[in-house]
Sequence to fold (215 residues):
Amino acid sequence: MIKIFEKTGSDEKSGKLSSIEKLVNNDLALCEKMNSLRDSISIVKLTPNGESELIRLLFSGLNGCVYIPRKGDNSERFDAIIDFPDYKAVVEIEIPSSAILDAPRNLLDDYAVLKARKGEITSNIIPLVICWDLPNKRTDYWNVISDIKEILGIEIKTVSIMALAVHYWIKTPLNLLDDSYYLDRSNSTMEYISELLSAVGISAEDFPGYFTPFK
Fold:
């Protein structure tokens, strides 16, 4: 069986944008941009390095520098490190979100490795799960996140690709140091994004699963 991939990367000679760039940088109205991204998971998965390209594009406008390790490097098991001026995030990327339950445990390993092997100042490291959509309220993900905070005092942040894109599109800074994206079993709704969207006339409820979990 032959698997067909989308072509990736800009065509510098023709000035054409890649499939991933078209999802992020286009002239659509904000609501239409969101609809287009919501329906694009197959494009992201079929484009070689599509996830990485999408993450890089979004964080390029959010003051973050993305480092993605080479595949097969067991000394760097995290999916990405994102450097911000005042802190960095160690990241697990779940696109689609079907295996998201593994992400918090993987992040604890990532966090420990950075502390032990890299000599990092852990107070400046934010463990972050980037997902396509949020796990529903009945999954154990939210319990695991809560337990990690209660037992270890480590807050694992959770943000959807759609939320990152909203920050990018409306040019609003992303600050992972505050509690806006610490979601757990007691509060799993991205209230900050709901406020941002409400200010531009869009209801977060029109995009169920991306800013608040399904029940």
Remarks:
- Confidence is low (pLDDT under 50) at residues 1-8.
- The radius of gyration is 17 Å.
